[in-house]
Write a structure and sequence with these properties.
- The structure is a single chain.
- α11 packs across α12.
- The radius of gyration is 40 Å and the shape is elongated.
- 45% of the residues lie in helices and 11% in strands.
- With 440 residues, the protein is α+β, with helices and mostly antiparallel strands.
- The two termini are 60 Å apart.
- α8 links the parallel β6 and β7.
Length: 440
């Protein structure tokens, strides 16, 4: 109940109900009403006075009549509601005035920054308070750019509204002959809206490359002004030459290692192996699926699907085992082929044999015939089963027979290294079918 307004209690409610049933209350019936409601006579008088104050009861010629709650509320609350509406309108006007003044002050940010640049030619670092100020200044700075704009964006996709807002500005920039280089993450190739946006910019002359991981957000204009994100939601405006030089060095290093953004139907498929290579590297470092997905800008579901395929290709039963196998085989190094899904069948030997030098003897001397590799399936019916990776005889487990697997199936490898070797052997042409093509 609002301050200064009486509140109806249980005694008043009981008397109000009695009056509704009996069609009102006469002065001579006060004792009767008190008895039938279980109230003392004094309590009945207090309840009647409370009902009158709350407009639920109005006096008439010979007593009192009950009034509907709607009518009572309209009569009792109309004044405070009108005052509240007037107060709300006053607050709205004051809020609009404050916002108008804030916008006027925000519009002075370019003046402030230009004056700071002249006052401190050696460079400064300023803070832009919110996204509104960032967008306003960024538009002004890019419209006045002369040489080059560098952009680094983190994330597997960008909001369509932000892309629509940036496209005309970027196209106008390219039409003026300003060079534009952008670094995205590999995952952007699989987002239709972002891919369409990138293709439009590339057609207009922009240069776009992708990496597994990039700086969270960075824009450098003409090598003289940089924007970095701040935790408050705004941005840091960088004019400090040494810091700008560092940011430019980082961008150029990433640019050299990045892959050009290909257009057309294959743009989303050619980079899939690189994405899985990055997942395997982070997996070997012990990162969880959610951390890997966040760093690579992909969904958690896509990340888990890639991890499952990598575990299957490595022949690993756990994430830890997959990381150990990948490190031992050097699969976490760049430009190393990743394991594919193994096909069923018996391995024919190691994936690759060492290259031997040609014979140095006379040309007529016959080259020695190479020794045949051990065939794990060549063991006789009474001989012990052999490892499909190295061909060594497999010892029987304690209390059980030889480790030969189920009837009709090859023996199990003797170690994780031999398991991986057997899988690589199955990838040879003619050794069996490979797994389906992977999508990011």
């Amino acid at each position: 109940m609002a301050a200064g307004m009486p509140e109806v209690d249980d005694s008043a409610v009981a008397l109000y109900r009695w009056m509704l049933v009996h069609g009102g209350l006469r002065a001579s019936e006060l004792a009767k009403a008190a008895g039938e409601t279980g109230l003392a006579r004094e309590e009945c008088r207090v309840a009647l006075r409370l009902l009158t104050d709350t407009c639920l009861v109005r006096p008439d010629a010979d007593g009192w009549q009950a009034v509907s709650p709607q009518a009572a509320g309209a009569r009792l609350l109309s004044g405070p509601e009108a005052a509240l509406r007037a107060h709300e309108e006053e607050l709205r006007v004051r809020r609009d005035e404050l916002q108008r003044r804030r916008d006027a002050l925000t519009g002075l940010i370019p003046v402030y920054l230009q004056a700071r640049q002249h006052a401190f030619p050696q460079g400064t670092i300023d803070h832009l308070p919110d996204q509104f100020a960032v967008r306003e200044l960024l538009t002004e700075v890019i419209d006045g750019s002369r040489d080059e704009v560098l952009v680094s964006k983190h994330g597997g996709s960008f909001p369509e509204a932000a892309l629509r807002e940036a496209l005309p500005r970027d196209l106008a920039l390219l039409e003026r002959g300003v060079r534009m280089r952008s670094l995205y993450q590999h995952a952007t190739r699989f987002d239709p809206a972002t891919r369409t946006h990138a293709e439009r910019l590339i057609e207009a002359g922009a240069e776009i490359r992708t990496l597994p991981e990039v700086l969270p957000q960075m824009i450098v204009v003409d090598g003289e002004l940089g924007f970095l994100p701040s935790r408050s939601g705004g941005a840091l405006l960088i004019r400090e030459p040494d810091l700008l030089g560092y940011l430019l060095d980082v961008f150029r290093r990433d640019w050299e290692y990045a892959t050009p953004f290909a257009t057309g139907p294959q743009a989303a498929h050619d980079i899939s192996e690189t994405v899985k290579q990055s997942i395997l590297t982070l997996l070997a470092k012990g990162l969880k699926d959610d951390s890997i997905a966040r760093r690579l800008g992909i969904s958690l579901r896509t990340c888990r699907r890639h991890v499952s395929e990598l575990l299957l290709g490595l022949g690993a039963h756990s994430r830890f085992q997959a990381g150990v196998i990948a490190e031992r085989q050097g699969l976490t190094q760049p430009h190393r082929p990743l394991p594919e899904r193994a096909a069923p069948g018996v391995a024919t030997g190691p994936a690759s044999a060492p290259v031997t030098a040609p014979p140095t003897g006379p040309a007529s001397a016959p080259a020695p015939a190479p020794e045949p590799e051990p065939d794990p399936a060549a063991a006789g019916p009474d001989g012990p089963p052999r490892c499909p990776g190295c061909g060594a005889a497999l010892a029987a487990a304690e209390g059980r027979g030889p480790v030969s697997g189920r009837p009709g199936r090859p023996a199990r490898p003797c170690s994780a290294a031999c398991r991986a070797r057997a899988y690589r052997a199955r990838r040879k042409p003619g050794a069996g079918e490979t797994g389906p093509a992977d999508n990011a």
